[in-house]
Amino acid sequence: MTIAIIGGGIGGLAAAVGLHKIGIKAHVYERASSFKPLGAGIGIGSNVMLALNKLGVSEDILKSGMTLKEQRFLNGNFKEMNKIDFTLLKKRFGEENITIQRADLHEALYRAVDPTYVHFNKKLEHFKQTNQEVTLHFTDGTEVSVDYVIAADGIHSIFRKTLMTKSKPRYAGYTCWRGITKNKDDVSMYLSSEAWSKDGRFGFAPLHNGDVYWFACVNAKANDPKYHSLDKSGVAQQFKHFSSTVERLINETYDDYFLHHDIYDIKPLSTFVYNRICLLGDAAHATTPNMGQGAGQSIEDAYELMNALKSENTVQDAFNVYDKRRVAKTKKVIKLSRQIGWAAQWDNPLLIAFRNTVFPFIPKSLLFWRLTFLFK
Question: Is the entire prediction scored with pTM above 0.85?
Answer without folding.
Answer: yes
